[in-house]
UniProtKB/TrEMBL annotation:
It is a multi-pass membrane protein. It comes from the Eukaryota. One of its GO terms (cellular component) is TIM22 mitochondrial import inner membrane insertion complex. Keywords: Membrane, Transmembrane, Transmembrane helix. It is found in: Membrane. Signal peptide: none annotated. It comes from Lithospermum erythrorhizon. Its main location: membrane. The keyword DNA-binding does not apply. This is Transporter. The chain crosses the membrane at residues 22-40. GO terms for molecular function: mitochondrion targeting sequence binding; protein transmembrane transporter activity. GO terms for biological process: protein insertion into mitochondrial inner membrane.
Amino acid sequence: MSSNDKAAQTPTSSTQIFKDRIFIPTILAGVVGSGVGLVSKHRKVHGLANISATYATNFAIVVGCYCGAREFVRVSRTGKPDDLLNSAIGGFGSGAILGRLQGGQVAAARYSVMFAVVGTTVDYATLKLKPILRNYYESMARKEMKLPEWSPIKVLDEEALAAKRAKEQQIYDNIHNLNKGKS
């Protein structure tokens, strides 16, 4: 069995890790960025489509670089996916690269600290919220959705449903008979 077969059989293959930990957050960041562009104060000057696309692109680039750097550090350190040190080192590295491209050495220092702090904070919050959201989702999935008693919408059993259909048919017949009598 080759190493590619082993990787394909394991549930955490490299393509699955890429999809879950880099691709999906990047796509979500693009969606959030376009939403930010929709409410941006610059939308009147630059146009709604242009500013939304610009924000979506920038958010996706930043998150893609951060997630890629974080996963590169995780693989290099042979660490666990939830290790926050990977987030800090990856944030520091990606912030330094993007800051250097954006505005020189001073910006590289500022961006590296900012990316390390913000990225690690988001990863920490995600780690803490994931079990809470999973429990909430599972509790909602187990519970049947019931309408409150005061709701005007009632779920009918088979007898009540048959009585309702008979009453509707009677009303339909009465209206149909009235229409025949007029013509």
